[in-house]
Structures are given as C-alpha cells and as structure tokens.
Amino acid sequence: MTGDVRVDRAEPLPDSVRAQLASAGSATVANMLLRRGLRNVIMSGVQPLAAGQPSLVGPAYTLRFIPAREDLDTLTNYASSENLHRRAIEECPPGAVLVIDAFGSTAAASMGDMMAARLRYRGVSGVVTDGGYRDSGAIKETGLPCYQRNNAPKATPVALHPVALDQPVGCGGVAVYPGDVLLGDSDGVAVIPRALAADIAVEAAEAAAYEEFAALEIRRGRSLFGLFPGTAESRQEYDTWVAAGRPGLE
C-alpha cells in the first residue's frame, strides 16, 4: 500500500482539486468517504489555531515523534542540521501539509513561530499536529494555516524526540500515509486517500452546491422531507435552479 501511495505522490495535486475540496469542506468530504466505507477520516481533538484562518488543503508530508529521553534530547543535539524535526521544516515540499504525529502530547511544542515562518516562506500549505505549538500568537501572525490539540509552550526536547520523516503516522486517531490529501477548515481536519482525492473533490463540490440550494429552500420554509437528503425529484429542481442561474443566492 505504501508503494502505491508513493506512486500517486509523483503527480502534483491539481489546483482544481484543491479548490473543490476547500469549497466543499471537511464535513461534506467525510460524508463522501463514508459512502466508500471509510469511517475514521476526521482527526479527533485537532482544532484550528486561529479563528477565521484560511482552509488548508495539500498532500501530507509526515514527521513522527516519540517520548524524549534525556541522554539523547539535548539542546545541542536539537541544534544539529541532522535533527529530523529541523529537517522536516526544510524538506517538507511546497504545497504540502506537514503532519506531525506527537502521540497526542502537549508536554512540549511540536513547532514554534520561527519554524512556522520558515514553512510559510517556503510555500508549505500548513501544519497539523495532535500535539501543540509554542509562540501561538506569533504563529498566527505568519498567516500559515495550523491545527493543534492545545498550546504547548515548553521547548520540544523536553518531551518529544523525532524518529521518522515521510512515513505512515497516526494523528488525531487517524492513519495518515505520505501523500494522503488533508483538508482542514473550521470543522476540523479530514484525511483523504490520495487515490480517491480527485473523485472525492468532484463529488464533494457537487454535494456542497446542492446544499446551497437546499439551504435556500429551507430558509423559505420548506420541509427537510423530500429535500435533504436529496431525492430524484429535488435533484431535478436543483438542476432547473442551476440552469436558471441560481436565483436567490446573493
């Protein structure tokens, strides 16, 4: 399976797929994945760092931590150019999402503001961790979309030891393989198998568009029955509405 993921990663994620996923949202994408039997796709306990931050979309590049050990995790070793945490910041590809498996620990920081600023400059799409960040206010100022469990002000070597780059990880209780597509928004973070991303993007965008029509009808007093979920008849109404230029939407 990992081999298949790596083959998929060779192809850039099209801008159209990014846009469709971002417009659809993580909740709608989760429903599309559920139709394919994938139930565990939304990270648990992982929330946006900043209210109103841009949506996050991109293929996963992963870093895995284990608990620190005092003889290995010193500030001297942390400063080394071979330290995997520091390498992750320099090696995460532009357009990708850095996914940090901190095994749910907020005992030390998964990232600070200098790292966030560097990722932003390098064109990385954002960062997701099931741990936490230090310098949260300064990270917000970089404009980099970030998700975490909670703030974690202590220095990384206090509690976290990096052991692997670009390998399968668990984050927020969800399996993440390198190249999987992450979608983060105000509802949370969804993980989409790379091979399904393009199809899911189209279906999710269509579903989100139908929900605009359904929401408009509900505001006019219409019942959910026969409208949401959609029926053959309501879908015909939707098609007519689209053909008419989506009247009623501002």
Automatic annotation (TrEMBL):
Entry EC number(s): 4.1.1.112, 4.1.3.17
Enzyme superclass (EC): lyase
Record InterPro entries: RraA/RraA-like, RraA/RraA-like_sf
Biological processes, Gene Ontology terms: methylation
Record keywords: Methyltransferase, Transferase
UniProt cross-references to Pfam families, sorted A to Z: RraA-like
GO molecular function, one term: methyltransferase activity
Alphabetized Gene3D superfamilies for the sequence: Ribonuclease E inhibitor RraA/RraA-like
Reaction catalysed by this enzyme: oxaloacetate + H(+) = pyruvate + CO2; 4-hydroxy-4-methyl-2-oxoglutarate = 2 pyruvate
Coiled-coil regions, chain positions: none
Keyword Methyltransferase: yes
Cofactor: a divalent metal cation
Complex and partners: Homotrimer.
Family named by the database record: Belongs to the class II aldolase/RraA-like family.
PANTHER family: 4-HYDROXY-4-METHYL-2-OXOGLUTARATE ALDOLASE 3-RELATED (PTHR33254), BLR3842 PROTEIN (PTHR33254:SF16)
Function: Catalyzes the aldol cleavage of 4-hydroxy-4-methyl-2-oxoglutarate (HMG) into 2 molecules of pyruvate. Also contains a secondary oxaloacetate (OAA) decarboxylase activity due to the common pyruvate enolate transition state formed following C-C bond cleavage in the retro-aldol and decarboxylation reactions.
Protein name per its UniProtKB record: Putative 4-hydroxy-4-methyl-2-oxoglutarate aldolase
Source species of the chain: Streptomyces laculatispora
